[in-house]
Design goal:
GO terms for molecular function: serine-type endopeptidase activity. The chain has four helices and 19 strands. The chain is mostly beta strands.
Length: 369
């Protein structure tokens, strides 16, 4: 269960923000294993600094966990009905808790597919700062130089991203790291290793045709409601998203000419348009002119946006464009390229994921072998 208290997101913990209650609250947190809380209190209740976001245990103790369980911060498990009620699975009295101090056993989701579901509540539905947990499938990628781009978790082992984000690391997957459940890049948690990288065989780094890649992780990722991590749904080969307003989010620049430092994830809703509208815009002499046919793929790419100040931008490459259908989110596209950012009448260009679902299936089979 999540609560926003004093302008800060906490997992389940009630934090009091006046001087009289500050010290007991801090001690209460520390007694449950939260040792990073600092309070800077003034005359009001708006100056609390959050403790580091708690993470699911990845220590050697995890080897002693019963099947279907993970270690999670006390009070952060969700119920089987995915409500806001706390649902801690208490171990047998007298037995030894295999989890680190401040954590307890939590059952992981089983049964029907969890893909495309969001576990957080009270999410923002307006452009701007994204709520923590709004895009639990979004991946934060790093390489040997730092932040590399974004991607999307499609199942427990595999991540989709733009090929141009990882093609220089194709032969050295150990140089790429994956973070999940990220909202603020200044608070990264567990780095997940990449076992293999597979680029689309027809990827063209000049035109960005077939700009799609799959990363296979070294270890499986379990959907974790308590950590706001889940996979997105893959569309069917013939699924149509044209005309739908979908979401793109990321840690990229807020404007084409800005170089702002990466901060909390931001989101924007953009409509998906047909190829003819996109080509008409891109073929304008002030945009691409005759080069529009060279760079715009009518099959492997789709276009979205076209409204002023509503667009992906620099450093958002590989981020998923996700569309909600019957309560689940499907990945329709991956951020590829554009001309400027948020220019009225000019669309952002995305990999058209529906065109690649057969390749994705065969690629995952190859990576598994």
């Amino acid at each position: 269960m999540m609560r926003r208290i004093c302008g800060v997101i906490y997992l389940w913990v009630t934090v009091y923000c006046n001087r009289a209650d500050a010290e007991p609250a801090r001690r209460g947190l520390e007694s449950n294993g939260y040792n990073g809380l600092e309070t800077i209190l003034g005359s009001d209740d708006t100056k609390t600094v959050a403790f580091p976001w708690p993470t699911v245990s990845s220590s050697a103790a995890a080897e002693n966990l019963p099947g279907g369980y993970v270690c999670a911060p006390i009070g952060s498990c969700t119920t089987a009905s995915n409500s806001n009620e706390i649902d801690i699975r208490i171990i047998t009295p007298g037995s030894t808790n295999p989890c680190p101090r401040g954590q307890t056993l939590c059952a992981t989701p089983t049964g029907a597919s969890q893909c495309g579901l969001r576990f957080a509540t009270n999410l923002s539905n307006v452009d701007g700062l994204a709520s923590p947990g709004a895009f639990p499938w979004q991946v934060y990628l790093v390489n040997q130089t730092g932040y590399a781009g974004s991607g999307v978790l499609i199942n427990e082992y595999h991540i989709l991203t733009a090929a141009h984000k990882v093609y220089l690391n194709g032969a050295s997957p150990e140089m790429v790291g994956v973070y999940l459940g990220v909202h603020n890049p200044q608070q990264l948690t567990v780095r997940h290793a990449v076992h293999r990288i597979l680029l689309h065989p027809n990827f063209n780094p000049t035109t960005l045709f077939n700009d799609i890649a799959i990363l296979r992780l070294s270890a499986a990722i379990t959907p974790l409601p308590q950590m706001l991590v889940n996979s997105v749904c893959l569309p069917s080969q013939h699924q149509v998203f044209e005309g739908q307003a979908c979401w793109v989010a990321g840690w990229g620049q807020s404007g084409y000419v800005t170089t702002n430092t990466l901060q909390e994830k931001r989101q924007v809703q953009v409509p998906i348009v047909n190829y003819n509208m996109c080509y008409a815009s891109m073929s304008s002499e002030s945009v691409l002119g005759a080069n529009a046919k060279r760079y715009l793929d009518p099959i492997g790419e789709l276009c979205a946006g076209g409204q002023g100040s509503r667009d992906a931008c620099m450093n958002d490459g590989g981020a998923p464009l996700t569309c909600e259908v019957n309560g689940r989110f499907y990945v329709a596209g991956l951020v590829l390229w554009g001309k400027g950012c948020g220019v009225p009448g000019i669309y952002g260009v995305y990999a058209n994921v529906t065109n690649y679902v057969n390749w994705i299936s065969s690629a995952m089979a190859l990576l598994t072998g």
